[in-house]
Amino acid sequence: MRAAVWLPLFDELADPLAVARLAASAEEAGWDGLFVWDQLWWREPIEAVADPWITLAAVACATERLRIGPMVTPVARRRPVKLVKETATLDLLSRGRLTLGVGLGSDRFAGEYSRTGEAVEDRLRAEQLDESLAILRAGWSGEPVVHDGQHYRVDDVRLLPRPAQGQVPIWVAGFPGNRKPIQRAAQYDGFFPVNLSTADELAVATDRLRESFDQQVLPEAYDVVVALEPDLDPGPFEQAGATWGLTDLDPATMRLADVQALVAAGPQW
């Protein structure tokens, strides 16, 4: 199981240069990836929140090997054609190291939808997510994009340049007990079950993934991603199918010095 640093870009970590230095340290210490939260603001006591895309550009320039990406981007909050351009450009900048984590997002943590006049209904944001993902893949192909959907329209436009990877891997986030996110994730490159509490819950989710693929084992290149507290035994989660473990840090108590020490110590799994 590969190991990644997963950072809320809050307060002391709202400085892109500080995160870029952490990324360089993580690469030197043997971590496999560095992913960041995508939020506009957060509840108290958090005050400052950095933009993930600018921060990831700094990380891309400070590293050569780490897998990087937002984990996860609430896609309904973004215009899909703009997201095509941002992801393709960041993938070129990182020389093909971007993974795009996507999900519905939630209004319950910080009111990011209701307080900006955007849709709060999960069903509506799910429709927007599915349309956006279709536009992303079409846009990354380099061929003309024609999309006339319920929420978005793209009229015969080529969105060049293409990503360095051709197609950027997509990891879909969702609650492990819900079938729809698992069915959606099976159409892409990975599944990130959020709010996972036990390895048994993960095992149930991976069983449902296999059902969606209609086969006994998941495809070799398919990823199952879990957030793990730094001192948690990863063994049961790996046995349940996890291929990536992300450091689960508490943003309310997180301090830069503690994160620096955690990163410098290297992965614990």
Structural description of this entry:
With about 270 residues, the chain is α/β, with parallel strands linked by helices. The protein is built from eight helices and eleven strands. It has helices spanning about 15-30, 50-60, 80-95, 120-140, 180-185, 200-215, 235-240, 255-265, and strands spanning about 1-5, 35, 65-70, 75, 100-105, 145-150, 155, 170-175, 190-195, 225-230, 245. Helix 2 links the parallel strand 2 (about 35) and strand 3 (about 65-70). The longest helix has 19 residues, at about 120-140. The termini are close together.
Summarize this structure as a short list of keywords or feature phrases.
alpha/beta, globular, 269 residues, 8 helices
Distance from N terminus to C terminus (CA atoms, Å) equals 7 Å
Task: List how many beta strands DSSP finds.
Answer: 11
Task: Give the overall average pLDDT.
Answer: 95
> How much strand content do the residues show?
15-25%
Helix content: 25-40%
Main sheet overview = 9 strands, parallel
- SSE pattern: EHEHEEHEHEEEHEHEHEH
What gyration radius follows from the Cα positions, in whole Å?
18 Å
Strand arrangement within the widest β-sheet reads: 3-2-1-11-10-9-8-5-4
Poorly predicted regions are none
